[in-house]
Amino acid sequence: MDLSQVALIPQPASLIATGSSFRLTDDTHLYASGEGATAAAEFLAGSLRPVTGYVLPVIAPAAGEPGDGHITLQIQSDTELGPEGYELTISEAGVTLTAPAGAGLFYGVQTLRQLFPAQIEAGSPQSGPWEIASGTIRDMPRYGYRGAMLDVARHFFSVQDVKRYIDLLVAYKFNVLHLHLTDDQGWRIEIKSWPKLTEVGGSTEVGGGEGGFYTQEQYAEIVAYAAERHMLIVPEIDMPGHTHAALVSYPELNCDGRDLELYTGTEVGFSTFCTQKEVVYEFIDDVIGELAALTPGPYLHIGGDESHVTKMEDYIPFVERVQGIVQKHGKEVIGWDEIANAKLVPGATVQYWAVAENAAKGLAQGAKVLISPAKYTYIDMKYDSTTELGLSWAAYIEVDRGYSWDPVEQVEGITEGDILGIEAPLWAETIDEMADIEYLAFPRMPGYAEIGWSPASSKDWETYRQRLAAHGPRFEALGINYYRSPLVDWPAASSE
Ligand code: TNX
Question: What is the pLDDT of residues 330-343, one digit of tens each?
Answer without folding.
Answer: 999 999 999 999 99
